Structures are given as C-alpha cells and as structure tokens.
C-alpha cells in the first residue's frame, strides 16, 4: 500500500475514533449528571416520605401515591418518575407498598441486609423488578418503637434515562459515519501533500538509476518541506558527487589508455623495425634493450595505475610505528638514484633524528620515492637534497632539486593525475607520481605541498609524529 493511502487511512481512522471517543465521554458525562440528579432527588424524597410515615404510619405511603395518581399535572418531574415505594421490617418482610410495585420484592431477594445497629446503605443502587430496571434508595424510618425499626425503599424507573443515553449513542454513530468521508478527503489531501516531495525524489532517483545523472529536483513539494528539502539537497549533492566520480573515472580511463598506448606503440615500432631486415647482433641487442626500457615503463605505469585505483577504493593499509629516518633510507634505495647515477643528500636536525611515525611502511616508501624520482628526472644536476626536521608535533620532510622550476600555469595542477607540464621530458612518466604521493600522505593524516616552484623546486611532506 502506498504511503499516501496509509496516511489517509491512519488520519481518517484516528480522527473518527477520537471523535467517537469524545462522543462517548460526553454521553457518559451526561449519564452521570442525570444519575446524580436522580440520586439526590431519591434521597431527598425518601427522607421526606420517611418522616411522614413516622408520623402517620404506612397509610402515608399508600395515600401519597394515590393522591399523586389523581393529580399528575400538579406534581414536579421527580415526583412523576419516583412511583415505586415499599416499607419493610428489619427482618426484610414487606409491610406495605405502592400500587406500582404490587408485591414488591423482599430485601433478601434484592440481596440487601439491614441491621438495627448498623444503618442500612444509603447509596442508590440498581435492581430489576419484573421486566423493569429500577434505581432505588433504602432509608430507615424513625418510629415510636426503636426495637422494631422499619425501612423505606423508594425507587424510580431508569427507562427514560437509559433511553436518552441510547439515543445519544445512536446520534454519535451517525455523526461518526458522516464524519468519516470528510476525514478521508482531508486525509487524502494531507497524505498527498506529505508525499509529493518524497514521490518527486523517488522519481528523480529512478532517473538516476536509468543513467540520467542530472537531477533537477525543483518540485514545490521538495522546497517547501524542511525535512524533504534536506533530503532533496542531500540527493542532489550525492548525484553531483556521483557525476564527478564518473567523469573522473572516464578521464582516468582515457588518460590510462593514452599512456599505455604510447610505450606499446613504441615497443611495436621497434620490434617491427628489427624484423624488416637482418641485423647484426649489436643491433638486435640495442633493439632488445629499447624494448626492455619500454616494458619497464609499462610495468611502472601499470603499478602507478593500480596504486591510484587502490587509493580511491580501499581502506588504508595497516599502519605501524616506524623509524622515519630508516624509511627515508629505504625510499632513497628504491628510487631512480642508482640507475641515473644521482647523489642524494639526506640531512636532518637533532629533533628529528629519532622521530617515529605511524604509517604503512610500503606507502611511506612509495610516497617519498615518487618525490625523489620527480627530483631526479627534473633536476639540472645530479644532486637531490632530502631534509628531515621537526615542526611542533609534525615531521617535515623536504625534497629539493635544482631544476628549472615549475611554470605558473602548471603550479595549480601539479598534483592532478596525468598532468604533465608543457616542457616535460619524454622520460618524465605519466604524471601520476606527485598525485599518488599527496594521496598517500593525506591518508596518513599529513599532506604534500609545493613549497617552492622556482629554482630550486621544493616539495614538502608533513606527517604527525608518533614519538621521538
């Protein structure tokens, strides 16, 4: 069942039930008021009748109701309904009764016990007489002989009072039935207004599922409700983020294909050239060496692509506390320093010599190796300087070369994947190293920044120190 229909039914049912409950409460209150007025009248009339019987005797009971029957128009409303009276001895035997009773039930039959010492109950009570439901009160009649007390039962029919309650209840049912269509209509309108925004967001989500990444959710129902508006904005942000990720993935795939194609094309060209004619052993050796270089470039590129993919999808590697200076030495050993015959100078201050960092060792080594390789490739001389220093609670590692520097237009994009400057060398790689280094540093709570773009070029890594 749709949410709109559930809201409509819930609203209609709850409001109708509340209306009927209020009606029942009103009827009960009305019944209690009527019953209270009847009870007070019964008590007052019983006291009056008891006093007259004490003076005149039982004839007062009989003559009173005979006179009442002869002058119906002259008595009040209470006297008209209080038409049942009976006089009893202490043992419950009937002494006299009114014509309306005509053999009134004994007190034992009504399960009423009286005691000359303990006064009879004065609280009104209901009892059945033949096919009638009566409400009565029992009072003691003062007599000249205290040893033989008498008790007066005075009662009135509940017929009119109960009929009024039943009539009010029937009216309540009809009012509830008449109210139900109104509440259904109001509930339908209310449910429609409540669910318009949700339905608009659902339709937009289905369009996104179908591949439409632009989601203009500008329905008035989305903007007028605070909660739905927040949900709509969150959905818009999610779709925008999703679109950006998809665009990034497409660019990544395009750049990766281009970068892979270049060394593969060169490798195929070299091999095709070698097969066109017979060559000497030295020429074949040179061709194989060139093919090996292209293969190594492909391997390095594939590794970088895998690292980029893992950084974007996997959780950080397990970290452990390691000696920062030892990791720097490992990064220098893994870099292009040996193959390019470059000298790397590692310097440090006294505060950083024993610094320890919580990192994934392999990630730290790759991060710093990428920075050192970048300095090796772009440096003017065969001299790269690495310096460790402490800056408060952070370890600062700078990698510096004496290359030509980075042009102004390239400085803002130097960490972008696949970005290569206009004057980049042929052997400068695919433009992934600096971006990978920054992402690794940030995953460990640090960062990599370009501190100096002019000559000398300096990249600085900052990482939190675990201990020193």
Describe the structure concisely.
The protein is of the alpha+beta class and 468 residues long. It has helices at residues 3-56, 59-70, 77-81, 159-209, 220-224, 226-275, 281-313, 324-334, 337-340, 361-378, 408-411, 433-443, and strands at 84-89, 94-97, 125-129, 132-141, 150-157, 320-323, 343-348, 356-359, 383-391, 394-401, 447-452, 457-464.
Unreliable segments of 5+ consecutive residues: 67-75
Total count of helical runs of at least 4 residues: 12
C-alpha Rg (nearest Å): 51 Å
For the largest sheet, list the strands in their spatial order.
Answer: 2-1-5-4-3
Q: Strand pairing plus helix content: what structural class?
A: alpha+beta
Oligomer: single chain
Q: State the helical fraction.
A: 55-70%
Give a description of the structure.
- By secondary structure, this protein is an alpha+beta fold.
- It has twelve helices and twelve strands.
- A five-stranded antiparallel β-sheet has the order 2-1-5-4-3.
- The protein is rod-shaped.
- 25% of the residues are buried.
Protein topology:
Blueprint: H1 3-56, H2 59-70, H3 77-81, E1 84-89, E2 94-97, E3 125-129, E4 132-141, E5 150-157, H4 159-209, H5 220-224, H6 226-275, H7 281-313, E6 320-323, H8 324-334, H9 337-340, E7 343-348, E8 356-359, H10 361-378, E9 383-391, E10 394-401, H11 408-411, H12 433-443, E11 447-452, E12 457-464
Parallel strand pairs: 7-9
Antiparallel strand pairs: 1-2, 1-5, 3-4, 4-5, 6-8, 9-10, 10-12, 11-12
Helix pairs in contact: 1-4, 4-6, 6-7, 7-12, 8-10, 10-12
């Amino acid at each position: 069942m749709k949410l709109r229909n559930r809201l409509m039914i819930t609203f209609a049912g709850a409001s109708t039930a509340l209306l009927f409950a209020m009606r029942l409460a009103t009827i009960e209150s009305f019944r209690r008021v009527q019953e209270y007025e009847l009870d007070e009248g019964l008590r007052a009339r019983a006291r009056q009748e008891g006093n007259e019987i004490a003076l005149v005797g039982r004839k007062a009971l009989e003559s009173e109701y005979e006179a009442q029957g002869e002058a119906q128009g002259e008595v009040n409303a209470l006297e008209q309904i209080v038409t049942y009276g009976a006089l009893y001895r202490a043992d419950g035997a009937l002494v006299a009764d009114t014509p309306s009773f005509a053999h009134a039930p004994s007190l034992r039959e009504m399960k009423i016990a009286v005691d000359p010492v303990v006064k009879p109950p004065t609280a009104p009570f209901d009892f059945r007489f033949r096919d009638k439901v009566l409400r009565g009160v029992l009072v003691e009649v003062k007599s000249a002989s205290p040893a033989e007390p008498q008790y007066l039962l005075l009662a009135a029919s509940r017929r009119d009072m109960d009929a009024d309650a039943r009539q009010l209840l029937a009216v309540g049912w009809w009012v509830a039935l008449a109210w139900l269509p109104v509440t259904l209509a109001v509930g339908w309108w209310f449910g429609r207004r409540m669910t318009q925004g949700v339905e608009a967001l659902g339709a937009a989500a289905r369009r996104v599922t179908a591949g439409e990444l632009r989601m203009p959710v500008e329905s008035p129902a989305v903007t007028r409700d605070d909660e739905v508006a927040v949900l709509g904005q969150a959905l818009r942000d999610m779709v925008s983020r999703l679109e950006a990720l998809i665009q990034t993935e497409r660019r990544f795939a395009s750049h990766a294909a281009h970068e892979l194609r270049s060394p593969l094309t060169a490798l195929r060209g070299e091999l095709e050239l070698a097969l066109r004619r017979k060559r000497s052993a030295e020429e074949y050796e040179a061709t194989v060496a060139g093919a090996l270089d292209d293969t190594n470039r492909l391997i390095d590129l594939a590794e970088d692509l895998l690292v980029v993919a893992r950084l974007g999808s996997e959780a950080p590697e397990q970290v452990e506390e390691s000696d920062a200076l030892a990791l720097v030495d490992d990064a220098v050993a893994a870099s292009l320093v040996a193959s390019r015959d470059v000298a790397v100078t590692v310097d440090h201050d006294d505060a950083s010599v024993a610094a320890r960092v919580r990192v994934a060792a392999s990630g730290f080594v790759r991060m710093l190796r990428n920075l050192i390789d970048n300095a090796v490739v772009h440096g003017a001389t065969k001299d790269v300087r690495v310096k460790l220093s402490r800056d408060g609670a952070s370890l600062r590692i700078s990698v510096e070369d004496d290359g030509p520097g980075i042009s102004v237009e390239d400085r803002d994009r130097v960490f972008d994947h696949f970005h290569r400057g206009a004057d980049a060398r042929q052997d400068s790689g695919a433009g992934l190293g600096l971006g990978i280094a920054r992402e690794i540093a940030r995953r460990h709570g640090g960062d990599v920044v370009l501190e100096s773009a002019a000559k000398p070029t300096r990249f600085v890594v900052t990482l939190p120190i675990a201990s020193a």
